[in-house]
Amino acid sequence: MLLKRLLPAVFALVAVLFTVPETLAAPSRYGARAFREAYELNAYLTFTDFGSRMELDDEGGAGFRFGYLYNPHHEIEFLYNSVTADDSIFPGESADVDHLQVAYVLNFTEKRVVPYLTAGVGMVHTDDSSPFLGSETNPVLGVGAGVRFFLGRVAYARFELRGNFFDGDGDVFANGEDFVFHEFAFGVGWRIPTR
């Protein structure tokens, strides 16, 4: 059901990629091409689609990224986001899900509109409000894709869809079971050139 609601939004975001007017893009002398190295700061909102086996309601949260662009096409970034989701089985119970990851980003262009692929590893910490469950921390693998739209000299809007995969430990999620959650993120960022 959620896929039916999310699919039109994804198509709309892809369509935006092809309709950004030149006047909103960064001038070429300040665009991504002008920076050989840079830092990036990005604050974002996230909508998390928890897999049905996680038994959590889909929910929104917030996050922050810090990245190091060591050339126009390659970047390493650190991301953290957090969300509190209601338990879909037991009313009144919830879980705090904190996600920390280090990811590699491959930027396809140096232009004003920058599509990219990303993959990373990290951990997801889940703290359940139920007195019977407790908390657990699991290694997580994330893969995703997104696009940056430069809106000025260094500012940009960023859209990303990321899938995250982990195995449960038995404290909150079933031991040895595979789990997945998807994150759709939208935020604004700043690129701070160093060279």
Beta-strand percent range: over 45%
Structural class: mainly beta
Unreliably modeled segments? 22-33
Overall number of strands:
8
User: What spatial order of strands do you see in the largest sheet?
Assistant: 1-2-3-4-5-6-7-8
The shape, in one word, is elongated
The Cα radius of gyration reads 18 Å
Number of helical regions:
1
End-to-end Cα distance, whole Å, is: 47 Å
Fraction of residues in helices? under 10%
- State mean pLDDT (0 to 100 scale): 84
What is the H/E order?
Answer: HEEEEEEEE
Walk me through what this model shows.
Strands 1-2-3-4-5-6-7-8 form an eight-stranded antiparallel beta barrel. The protein is built from one helix and eight strands, in the order αββββββββ. It is elongated. The protein has one helix at 2-17; strands at residues 38-50, 59-71, 74-86, 94-107, 113-128, 135-150, 155-167, 178-193. By secondary structure, the protein is mostly beta strands.
Task: Considering the chains and any ligands shown, give keywords for the structure.
mainly beta, single chain, 195 residues
Topology of this structure?
Elements lengths: L1 H16 L20 E13 L8 E13 L2 E13 L7 E14 L5 E16 L6 E16 L4 E13 L10 E16 L2
Antiparallel strand pairs: 1-2, 1-8, 2-3, 3-4, 4-5, 5-6, 6-7, 7-8
